[in-house]
Amino acid sequence: MIPVRSYVRILSKYLRPLRGRVILLSVVALAAIGLQLAGPQLIRGFLDGATSGRPTSELIPLAVWFIAIAVLQQAAKVWATYLSVDVGWSATNDLRADLAEHVLHLDMGFHKTHTPGALIERIDGDVTSLSNFFSSFTIQVIGNLILIVGILVLLWVENVLVGLGVTVFVVLIFSAMVKVQTIAVPRWKAVRARSAELMGFIGEQLGGTEDIKANGGDRFMIARFTKILRLWLPEQVRGRHGFSMLWAMGITAYITGLTVVFWLGSLLFGDGTMTLGSVYLVFHYVQMSQDPMEHIRSQMEDFQKAGAGIARVEDLLARSSAVRDEGNTLLPDGALDVTFDSVTFSYNDEEDDLGRPVLDSLEFKLPAGRVLGVLGRSGSGKSTLARLLTRLYDPQEGAIRLDGTALIDVPVEDLRHRVAMVTQDVQLFGASIRDNLTFFNHSVDDARLLEVIEELGLTPWLETLDAGLDSRLEASGSGLSAGQAQLLAFTRIFLRDPGLVILDEASSRLDPATEELIERAVGRLLKNRTGIIIAHRLATIERADDILILEDGHIVEAGDRIGLANDPDSRLSHLLTTGLEEVLA
Are 503 and 422 in contact (CB under 8 A)? Predict the structure, then answer.
């Protein structure tokens, strides 16, 4: 079924802000159509005048008017084409922006099940097919439909029999095209889905090129790539088959239409019902109708792709985040206390709701201004604890509170401002140092940036760069040590001045040359703030006031760090005594 309502909904929403340009486009397009219909009328007058013996002085003005109208019609057509492309891309760029923003606000459960490459294909590939459709919809579809209606009206005025015959023929052709559409749109939807899978695979492989090459996985990746292509090709063939049916239909229509016109024209001219000019007029109009029919036929491919693209775009927009942003209670300034109240959480994906709990009835309270060191083996739930505090996920049971306020009652924007997390993998963008530190927030003053950079000891490094804050960083962070990247992440945190800081393995990749800077930065970062340090190694939690050890989502030990260290029966004391700093890894 053709998604007509979806077309209208998308068109009306994104063309409404461009109504001025749309109105101008409509006027110019209608003017071009009117001029195109007027030209053959002048030719008919010229032929009838020439065959009836009218003087040359009366025929020359007709020829001059025909040339003038032809020039104006071409100029209007070029202008309308420019306007249609401008409107189409402006509208779909707004749609791209809305889709990108919507995807960024979806929960991490969604992003775990959708690769970046697949999402890029959805946001860019599907919307590009819509852009082609938007930019040519007015000119190639609506404009040509109006042209065909105008031709049919003039043919009815010229001769009822000719008008009736051509009208029936055009209606049959359009009905067949619509029928082919109902077959072809689902096929193009399958093509778009397969293309998204291909783009997702390519994105993954490009991101992991170093590991793939280092481990000799090149041939295996090529084999997987070939397998996906072999699945993609039949879908493309089936999608193109619908286009081929439309092409064959257009050729058949053209040949049949000319045959009918020549037959009727010879009969009507022979019995004197029509003049030579009128026969030419009918022939020209029928031949002229072939162009809009051909344009509409060629646009049916974009129509098919747009139909599939609209379905996938609407499906993406219909996705709602599992993390609801409905809170209206703002968190207070200063250090925040943290309470986990019987929190249970599992990473349920979209197909399996029976995931094993990563955190099971977790309960603890961290007073404001204290630093908690969290230890545990891989998979014990340490990083999950941090993700819940930043509301990348919500627990299935229980509640998490900051200063007595449940996280679900806090606006997500305010929560992300008051709770900051630094991980070992710092995300850097292909942009200036300033934009990397402020996340492209141009309202942050340079003086404040330089003050924080000085406080963290990055000024000597910054002074080695010719462009200073305008120096461009690579997206991969190449040219920076792990320690420098971490210090940039700490700078981001200082600029936000949060009340709770979470360091998730933030010191596990630091080089010795910057260890002193890092230690000083961490000390200043945690000053007058609540802190949670998540680590595999014991050395990283020496500055903690309290300790919490997790195992399979449960707390197996918790308490004051110094007290636990002095208790010979505690797990922490045992670990410190044995010196096995990696025992929890």
Answer: yes
Chain segment 268-313, per-residue pLDDT in tens = 666 767 777 777 777 777 777 777 776 776 666 566 666 667 777 7
Q: Are 2 and 179 in contact (CB under 8 A)?
A: no
- Nearest one of 356, 353, 357 to 345, comparing CA atoms: 357
Whole-number Å distance between alpha carbons of 387 and 70: 67
The counts of H helices and E strands in the chain are 20, 10
User: For residue 16, what are the contacts with CB-CB under 8 A and spacing of at least 6?
Assistant: none
Rounded Cα distance between 307 and 185, Å, is 6
- Domains of the chain with bracketed CATH: 4-318 (1.20.1560.10), 368-387+419-428+480-578 (3.40.50.300)
Distances (CA, A) of 538 to 422, 444, 458, 532: 18, 37, 27, 14
Pairing, β 405-406 against β 359-366? unpaired
Query: Can you give 248-295 as a three-state secondary structure string?
Result: HHHHHHHHHHHHHHHHHHHHHHHCCCCCHHHHHHHHHHHHHHHHHHHH
Residue 243 CA: distances (Å) to CA of 193, 254, 402, 550, 553: 18, 17, 59, 60, 56
CB atoms within 10 A of CB 197: 17
Structure tokens at 215: 């481990």
CA distance 311 to 308: 5
Distance of CA 404 to the CA centre of its chain: 37
Report helix, strand or coil for 327: coil
Tell me if the pTM is above 0.85.
Answer: no
Token pair listed for 567 = 């208790």
SS (H, E, C) 438-479: HCCCCCCCHHHHHHHHHHCCCHHHHHCCCCHHHCECCCCCCC
